[in-house]
Amino acid sequence: MEITLDIGKNTASEINTIAQKDGVEFDIAALKLLDLGIRVHLASLEKNGEKDSDPLLVELLNHAIKNSYLQKEILGHVFDKERSLFKAYDALAAFQVSENMAHAFLHGKELF
Predict the structure, then answer these.
(1) pTM for the whole structure
(2) Per-residue pLDDT, 51
(3) 96 and 79 share a domain?
(4) Counting beta carbons within 10 angstroms of the beta carbon of residue 94, is it exposed (0 to 12), middle (13 to 18) or buried (19 or more)?
(5) Which of 22, 66, 102, 112 is the 20 to 30 Å CA partner of 41?
(6) How far apart are CA 63 and CA 67, in angstroms?
(7) What is the pLDDT of residue 50?
(8) Within its chain, how far is the Cα of 95 from the centroid?
C-alpha cells in the first residue's frame, strides 16, 4: 500500500539523518519509525504493559501501609526524645529517620 504524507522539512531531515546512520534508504527508515510509533502506542493502551497484581502482594502491601499508619499514631503518643536511638526530636522525625534508613537499605547502602 502506498500513502503520501506531508511531514515537514524538520521531520524529513530527522528521518534522513536516521537513515544515513542506519545505512538504509529514506523510505525504509520512515517505515521503521512509523512501525515503532504504532508499537509504542499499542503498548501504552495495554495498562502500561503490566499484568494484574498478585493478590498476595496486594494483601502484604495493604498490611504494610496500615501498620505504617498505626506505628505513626502510636509513636506520637509514647515517644520520649531522651530515649530515642535516632536522637530524634519528636515522633515524626524518628519515623522519617526510619523511612530514610529503610530506603537506604533497599538501595544497598550500609546503615551502620
Answers:
(1) 0.41
(2) 59
(3) yes
(4) buried
(5) 22
(6) 6
(7) 56
(8) 24
Number of domains in the chain: 2
Residue 111 resides in a domain:
no
Question: How do the pLDDT tens digits run along the chain, 112 residues long?
Answer: 777 878 888 889 999 999 999 999 999 999 999 888 888 888 777 765 455 677 888 888 888 888 888 888 888 888 888 888 888 888 888 888 888 888 888 888 876 6
**By the 8 A CB rule, do 88 and 94 touch?**
yes
For residues 44 and 59, membership in a common domain is answered with no
Q: What is the DSSP code (8-state) at residue 56?
A: H
In a 10 Å sphere around its CB, with 0-12 CB exposed, 13-18 middle and 19+ buried, how is residue 29 labelled?
A: buried
| 31 and 62 both lie in a single domain | no
Is 82 part of a structural domain of the chain? yes
* CA–CA separation, 27 and 13 (whole Å): 12
Amino acid code (one letter) for 44: S
Cα separation, 17 vs 11, whole angstroms? 10
Closest CA to 22 of 41, 36, 40, 7: 36
